[in-house]
Amino acid sequence: MALTRKSSTLYRALVITSRRYCEKAEKSVYQRHEEGEKPRLVHGEPYPEWRKQWVKREGEWTSKLSVFVEKNPSPDILYLFSQAPNLTVQKVKDWWANMKELQEIENQKYLPERVATLGANLAAVHFFCYRFATVRLKDSEDWIRGDITNLKLPSTYTDGYYVEAIDCANFHHNGIRYEGLENLQNLNFLKWLSLKNNKHVDVWCLDRVAGHTGRTLEYLDISGCNLCVGGVFAIARMSALKMLIITDPGDNMDLQAALSMLEQENPKLLIKAIRPTSDNVNNSK
Fold it and tell me: Would you tell me which of 33, 54, 194, 205 could form a disulfide with 201, CB atoms 3.0–4.6 Å apart?
């Protein structure tokens, strides 16, 4: 009997919760605003006045524009309004650049839904090729390149797409970022990777590359990237690496020493240092 009563109580609670949720979802924010806010009760008692938001307390003024806001205003929006009296053209440019960067980071994020639909390898082909990178498949000499207007790729999982090489030298919007490198995971046939002149590639990116491809990657080009001592230690985790192309470290003695240690740890590794070009210098700036 106790079990039946408990089950009945749980069922009734679920029904009530789901019904209220559906009723709330059917009504627009405008309808709920016209009906007014229902009094909130806690254990059958009115909600204490001192615990309410200040805009909902008696005597406080509320703008009619609040009909467009269901929750508390974002701190970013409040900060933007606070800067209105001191708004300058440069601040607007900085804000716009920041928004573009956030959009690009969001655009490069790893999407589990894409991998679940296409599989890890075909999903990587979609991600890289549609962002102006080129991909070569296992047992193939042709590179897959193009854009969304002329590149026709399968929209569901298709066997035979095993990524062996990726060239990100022309990756759009100033290069691949840390978030985008998450799309390298589960590429078990990847042996060749070029991140040449990608200015966002740093020690954290190299650590992510090592974590995802360290057991298979044999060729890595990071010339024109931000290489530091920590990045060399990340490269040391790539046990299968045979060829490494970097920009000449110049007079950076710490970086030279780290590279020497890397050669000692992996005698099969060949490190090729190239002189920085004018494009590399501009990208580093």
Answer: 205
Residue 246 DSSP SS3:
strand
User: CB–CB of 241/271 below 8 Å?
Assistant: no
95 within some domain: no
| CATH number of the domain that residue 170 is part of | 3.80.10.10
Domain total of the chain: 1
Q: How far is CA 251 from CA 77, 144, 244, 254, in A?
A: 47, 39, 19, 9
For 237, the domain range is 108-284
Residue 28 belongs to a domain: no
| pTM summary value | 0.69
User: For 73-102, what is each residue's pLDDT tens digit?
Assistant: 667 777 777 777 787 888 888 888 988 999
8 A C-beta contact, residue 196 and residue 222: yes
pLDDT digits 0-9 by tens, 125-147: 999 999 999 999 999 999 999 88
* Position 39 in a domain: no
| Tokens describing residue 227 | 């290489």
